[in-house]
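Sharing in case it's useful to others searching the archive later.

Someone asked me privately for the predicted structure of Nitrogen regulatory protein P-II, so I'm posting the question and my answer publicly. Question first, with the sequence:
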Amino acid sequence: MKMVMAVIKPFKLDDVREALLAIGVEGMTVTEVRGYGRQRGQSDKGSADGAKAEAAPTLLSKVKIEVAIADGLEDKVIKAISKAANTGRIGDGKIFVYDLSHTVRIRTGEKDEAAL
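And my answer, the predicted C-alpha cells:
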C-alpha cells in the first residue's frame, strides 16, 4: 500500500477531487496548510539583472490531499493529480509517495488493502 500526499493550490481542489473519483479513488483527507517551496513564496526567482532577492519567505495558502491506495496504483494517481492540479505557473505544488505499512478500519477491524 502507498500513501500519496499532494500539496496544491486551493482553487484546484475540486478538479483534483473529481480526477481522483474518476479513477476510482474512494477516500481522501484534505487539510488547509501554509508553506513555501523552492521559490520561498515569491512569484519569481530574482530581479531583472538576475540577482536573487533576499526577502523573507512568504507562507502561501495551500491544500494538502492525502489518499491511501493499493500498490500498483501510484502512477495512475500521480498522473491524475498532476494533470488536474497543473496551471503551468510557479507554485502548482508537489506530490509525495511513501510506503504505508499497515491500515485498520476502526468500525469493522478490516486490515490493510481490505480497509482501504
